[in-house]
């Protein structure tokens, strides 16, 4: 921690001394500490290789307790119509985890002294004079207009251009997900085009097109290896190696398209928002095995779709919401891929979806640090797709005290595995209270419980074999949270 902080401090001092008198320099960030107690909220073993931290519940799992910590520091340099942003992070997976070592997400052991600084973003931006056009180039964070289903809160290196011609605003961009190891066509690239029409301040309609160009399939990957390529579609086989089988295949350069709409409207105390998209394309000439099935050099089409609808309302002393989403899945008899390809197929947490539902166990939470896990960690959901419904109510009890309650339901859209494995179902209830002790410092108590139905025991997790003869226990988690934003 000491060395990481000194590095950040050195960058701040150098930038400050180099900045001309007319430029603005600022810093911001937060420190977040969470002390957990949880039951059956576990990953690892087979889960650790799946390209997303899907919870693998078990039977009679021991209670876990630990403290994790995150600190982020943003450096913002602003000149006249030009600037630069750097965002850095230091994480401790557990207090007491290690010391005198180099590596991310560790270094909170006795005496610390570890090298653990991460670069999240570093990009420049500039405004084109006498226009509304703004260009951002470099390593930056981007999110799609589909609730983060395709690429949600994802850090990527690229160039993005935004602008406005009232009543229309737009975004155009390109990013490099992966740079291959040769000069041939072996990269993974993202292309973005969005247009938003805002006829009134309370109405917005958008049209969105994204393209993923995947030419990384020249090398097969082991089943479920994250950060590689479409071999991660075989995550299900890592859970059911006995019932299914291994995944390892190559494929030719392939294109995946996402065409959709999004919108929002507000009338008095009620607001409606939503989106829908269709994902299509072709996995070109795959050769190998997928979950034990032979791929014989025949194209596999991608035909997936999703829809989401949300309502927000002022309700008495607080605010309420209800939101539902459907994401298609691949069924037993489907010859095509009917669950969407996402950035989660290429990097851990590349797709961080539906955080607006504010779930703690069913889906991802924006408050996650390193203990980030969910029953459906992405909407592809190992090929099964999802059906999810959530509702919540939030209110302030005083200027310093607030609270929230929520409920959610999740089930697989399709049963990819078939008998004897059933569609998984789960119902979550959650609540939290937060107290603002001083300006910028919040203290919170959070809790969530998930009732599982037809969820088999992943007891043999070390070898990735689910036990189909008994059900997993329910899941709960609770944590104390301190967060200082500056």
Question: What is the strand and helix layout of this fold?
Answer:
Elements: H1 2-18, E1 24-39, E2 64-78, E3 82-92, E4 118-127, E5 134-142, E6 154-165, E7 168-178, E8 188-200, E9 203-214, H2 235-239, E10 248-252, E11 254-267, E12 270-290, E13 293-296, E14 300-315, E15 318-327, E16 386-396, E17 401-412, E18 425-438, E19 441-453, E20 456-460, E21 465-471, E22 475-485
Antiparallel strand pairs: 1-2, 1-22, 2-3, 3-4, 4-5, 5-6, 6-7, 7-8, 8-9, 9-11, 10-12, 11-12, 12-13, 12-14, 14-15, 15-16, 16-17, 17-18, 18-19, 19-22, 20-21
Structural descriptors:
mainly beta, Porin, 18-stranded antiparallel β-barrel, 2 helices, globular
Structure notes:
By secondary structure, this protein is mainly beta. Helix content is 5%, strand content 52%. The protein is built from two helices and 22 strands.
């Amino acid at each position: 921690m000491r060395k990481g902080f000194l590095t950040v401090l050195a960058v701040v001092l150098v930038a400050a001394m180099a900045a001309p008198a007319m430029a603005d320099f600022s810093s911001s960030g937060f420190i977040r500490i969470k002390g957990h107690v949880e039951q059956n909220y576990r990953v690892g073993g087979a889960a650790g290789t799946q390209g997303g931290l899907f919870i693998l519940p078990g039977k009679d799992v021991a209670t876990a307790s630990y403290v994790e910590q995150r600190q982020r520091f943003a450096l913002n340099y602003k000149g006249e119509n030009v600037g630069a942003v750097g965002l850095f992070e230091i994480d401790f997976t557990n207090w007491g985890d290690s010391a005198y070592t180099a590596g991310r997400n560790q270094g909170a052991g006795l005496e610390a002294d570890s090298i653990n600084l991460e670069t999240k973003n570093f990009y420049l931006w500039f405004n084109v004079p006498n226009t509304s056009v703004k260009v951002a180039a470099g390593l930056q964070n981007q999110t799609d207009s589909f609730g983060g289903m395709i690429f949600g809160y994802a850090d990527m290196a690229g160039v993005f251009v935004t602008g406005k011609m009232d009543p229309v605003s737009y975004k155009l961009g390109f990013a490099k997900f992966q740079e291959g190891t040769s000069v041939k066509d072996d990269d993974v690239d993202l292309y973005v085009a969005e247009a938003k029409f805002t006829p009134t301040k309370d109405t917005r309609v958008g049209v969105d097109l994204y393209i993923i160009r995947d030419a990384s399939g020249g090398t097969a990957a082991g089943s479920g290896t994250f950060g590689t390529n479409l071999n991660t579609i075989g995550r299900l086989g890592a859970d059911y190696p006995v019932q299914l089988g291994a995944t390892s295949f190559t494929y030719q350069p392939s294109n995946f398209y996402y065409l959709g709409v999004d919108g929002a409207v507000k009338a008095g105390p009620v607001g409606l928002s939503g989106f829908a998209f269709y994902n299509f394309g072709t996995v070109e000439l795959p050769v190998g095995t997928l979950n034990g099935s032979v791929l014989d050099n025949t194209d596999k089409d991608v035909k997936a779709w999703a829809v989401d609808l949300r309502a927000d309302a002022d309700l008495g002393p607080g605010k309420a919401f209800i939101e539902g989403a459907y994401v298609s899945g691949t069924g037993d008899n489907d010859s095509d891929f009917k669950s969407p390809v996402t950035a989660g197929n290429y990097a851990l947490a590349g797709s961080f979806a539906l955080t607006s539902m504010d779930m703690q166990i069913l889906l991802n939470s924006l408050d996650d640090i390193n203990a980030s896990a969910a029953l459906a960690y992405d909407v592809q959901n190992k090929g099964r797709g999802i059906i999810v419904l959530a509702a919540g109510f939030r209110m302030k009890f005083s200027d310093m005290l607030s609270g929230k309650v929520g409920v959610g339901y999740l089930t697989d859209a399709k049963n990819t595995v078939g008998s004897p494995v059933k569609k998984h179902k789960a119902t979550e209830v959650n609540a939290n209270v937060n107290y603002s002790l001083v300006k910028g410092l919040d203290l919170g108590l959070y809790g969530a419980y998930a009732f599982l139905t037809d969820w088999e025991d992943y007891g043999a997790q070390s070898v990735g074999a689910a036990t189909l003869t008994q059900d997993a226990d329910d899941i709960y988690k609770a944590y104390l949270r301190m967060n200082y934003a500056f």
